Structure formats: structure tokens, C-alpha cells
Amino acid sequence: MKYKYVADSCCEFPDFFAETHDCVRVPLTIMVGSDTFIDDDTFNQAEFLKKVAEYPKCPKSSCPSPESYMKAFDGDADAVFVTTLSADLSGSYNSAMLARELYLEENPKKKIHVFNSESASGGEAQILMKAAELAEQGLSFEEIVEKTTEFARSQQTYFVLESLETLRKNGRLSAMKALAATALNIKPVCKSNHGVIEQVAIARGMKKALDKMVDMSLEAVPDTKDRTLYISHVNCKERAEKVLASYVAKAEFARTIINDTAGISSMYANDGGIIVTI
């Protein structure tokens, strides 16, 4: 069978995967005041981060239309695997599910499965990479769906924010608390709990917060030998490389990946943010 891998644009496919597999990213749209950014190959991260820093309110995003997903399903692939942002964070999953239903009415022979990543960024990429790995082992479509779903549920996503401005702007943190946290150099360590974002720790300073993230994520996934460590960063590659060094000093991984974020991940994590999935 021929397979196609489709994700919304919060997913950042590693170059080696995109170059060897039939992949499509379906763009979300981000609005920063009167400015609109399409999260595709035209996205300019530097310009976007500048606009976000200057804008007093929180950026907004709109998910892809069902029609956009249906267009992505086209092609000569016998089966399509799709993943999206956590359904608790975006309407992207519901849009993809509706697209699947409509597309299969006209193309009943094609197989399509939509995974709710319960994650974002590298977590989405990891799910489709797992599906591809299982496909290359010769498993059936149904077996790939079952095993990839199990993997997605076991995956751990953690992140640390450099700035609390996004939380302040979207109302999740009062201005007074944000000011106090900034003055004290408090950094939150957060994780995705089956798609719902939770703060799991705080630390004074970025280094201590990142160290906590490393330790907590490795505690959640004690056996990493067959896992991929995926580190997404928002405009801070040197920081991401230091985080990678901290991980490999404490655990062994099948593969490690560092990738800069595209638009949606940049919006959520903001300048200097680090997102890790194992």
C-alpha cells in the first residue's frame, strides 16, 4: 500500500522524514491585530514574534477548513494518516474528522484515520513517524492505527516558557501575578495531560526550570532506548542544544531531533520557549 501523512501546521516534520515520505502540512491562520500570518512556507518567525511582542492582546488562530483537509487527502495513496493539535486546544481535529467523513463518501476505497495527538509540535510529528515506521514493517492499516494510538497515548509532552506574556494576554494569569513572576524570574514547567495543559512545577530561572523538565519527563518515561527525543524551540537553538545535552547525559534514545517551530507552536510557546516530546 501507498501511504500519505497529513498534519495541521502545528506539526514540524523533520527534514529527513519530509524528504522520504509523502507529507502535507495543512496551514492554520494566525491573527495578530490587523496582521494575518498563514502558517505555511511563507511564515516569517522573526516578523511574527516582533508583532506579537508589540501587540497588547493575545494572538488568535483559526483552524484549517474541512475543504483544506480534503484537498490534502487527494493523491494516489491508498491510505492516509492524519494528526492534529490536541482537540482540547483547537478545532483542527474536528475539522479533519468532518473532512474524512465527507471525503470517504466520494472515495470509499481510500482508508483515512485521524489521530487526536493530545499534543502539539513534535508530538504530532512523532505520531506520524510511528505510523510510517509500522507501515514499513508491513503491518495492516488497522494494526498501524491500533499501535500508533497506543503510542500517542503513552507519549509525553513538556514545555518551559521564557515569557509569561502569552499567559497574561490570554487571561490565564493576572497582570499582578505575571509581574511578580517576571520580577522573581519564575519559569513554569508545563505538560500536556492527554491534551490538557497543566503546570507541574515552577523554578527560579530558565536553567533550573529546564533541569526540572528533563528530570520530570524522564521519570514519566523511564525506558527511552526505543524512543525519539524531539525538541522544538522558538528562536533559541543554542538553548535547545543544551537541553539535548542534558537529556543524553541521563538517558539513551533511539534518535534525537531538534527543530525550530513554525507559526502555531511559536504562538503558543513564544520567543525562547522549549517544547519536548518523548
Core attributes:
25% strand; alpha/beta; 6-stranded mixed sheet; Hypothetical Protein Tm841, Chain: A,domain 3; 278 residues
Helix- and strand-based class?
alpha/beta
Low-confidence stretches: none
Shape: globular
CATH first level of the largest domain: Alpha Beta
Number of helices: 11
How would you explain this protein's 3D organization?
The chain is 41% helix and 25% strand. It is an alpha/beta fold. The protein folds into two domains: 3-28 and 63-154, Rossmann fold, CATH 3.40.50.10440; 157-277, Hypothetical Protein Tm841, Chain: A,domain 3. Helix 5 packs antiparallel against helix 6. The protein is globular, with a radius of gyration of 19 Å. The protein starts with a strand and ends with a strand. The model has no long low-confidence stretch (mean pLDDT 92).
Layout of secondary structure:
Layout lengths: L2 E6 L6 H4 L4 E4 L2 E4 L2 E4 L6 H10 L5 E3 L3 H8 L5 E6 L7 H15 L4 E6 L5 H15 L4 H14 L2 E4 L4 H5 L5 H9 L2 E8 L2 E9 L1 H15 L7 E6 L3 H12 L6 E6 L2 H7 L4 E4 L1
Parallel strand pairs: 1-2, 1-6, 6-7, 11-12
Antiparallel strand pairs: 3-4, 3-5, 8-9, 8-13, 9-10, 11-13
Helix pairs in contact: 3-4, 5-6
Quick structural gist:
The protein has helices spanning 15-18, 45-54, 66-73, 92-106, 122-136, 141-154, 165-169, 175-183, 206-220, 237-248, 263-269, and strands spanning 3-8, 23-26, 29-32, 35-38, 60-62, 79-84, 111-116, 157-160, 186-193, 196-204, 228-233, 255-260, 274-277. It is α/β, with parallel strands linked by helices and 278 residues long. The model has no long low-confidence stretch (mean pLDDT 92).
